[in-house]
Design brief:
Helices cover 20% and strands 29% of the residues. It is an alpha/beta fold.
Length: 205
């Protein structure tokens, strides 16, 4: 199909905001529609722009407990991109502090249930369990890998932040982040592609 499609991901080079040259990446506007997800492959480098929601261990536990009780959720999960992170306080004059990814395996007990609610993507660091990978493929959810050791850089890509649920948890509350050119790599795609496959058969389904 020729021409531009409304809502289609943009592809090209992007200059770093700090003026440090160019970085290759597929520039994608959130939310990640199923059409976009189907076209991504493990190893693709993406620059995300739009809304992410953060959630770590305690927030995940509360969300799953609410689902099991049939209670309404405080956030919409369908087509959301959930970032495993706890933002640090913002420095004076900045919209956000450091916001690096948390080890994703800590959320493995809760991920299949949340994937079933229609989450488009989960963002963290490190590989996932075979059970989680099966659930991701079953429900059409991506796993995206954040840039470890670059929390300050990732914080610089946040344009706005606000707490939206479980504020009493402090950094582990659910926050809404507005991001621009937020770098991630596709870890597991919907076709079974796996950037961690070199780590050995113990991590494969």
């Amino acid at each position: 199909m020729s021409g531009k499609t409304k809502g289609a991901p943009r592809v090209g080079k992007k200059k770093r905001p700090e003026g440090g040259g160019e970085t290759e990446g597929r520039r994608v506007n959130l939310p990640l529609t199923r059409e976009i997800r189907d076209g991504l492959r493990a190893g693709d480098c993406l620059l995300l722009s739009g809304t992410l929601i953060t959630a770590r261990d305690q927030a995940h536990r509360r969300l799953v407990e609410a689902l099991e009780k049939g209670e309404p959720l405080p956030v919409e999960l369908r087509d959301a991109s959930v970032y495993y992170a706890g933002p640090s306080p913002a420095p004076r004059g900045k919209p956000a502090g450091s916001v690096g990814p948390t080890t994703a395996s800590r959320m493995d007990p809760y991920t299949p249930r949340l994937a079933a609610e229609g989450v488009a993507a989960f963002i963290g660091k490190g590989p996932r369990s075979p059970e989680v990978r099966r659930a991701l493929r079953e429900h059409g959810s991506l796993y995206l890998v954040g840039v470890g050791g670059a929390a300050a850089l990732l914080g610089s890509r946040v344009r706005a932040i606000r707490a939206v649920a479980y504020q009493e948890l402090g950094p582990e509350a659910i926050y809404e982040l507005e991001v621009e050119d937020f770098p991630v790599v596709v870890g597991y795609d919907l076709s079974g592609g796996d950037v961690f496959s070199h780590l050995g058969s113990g991590l494969k389904t």
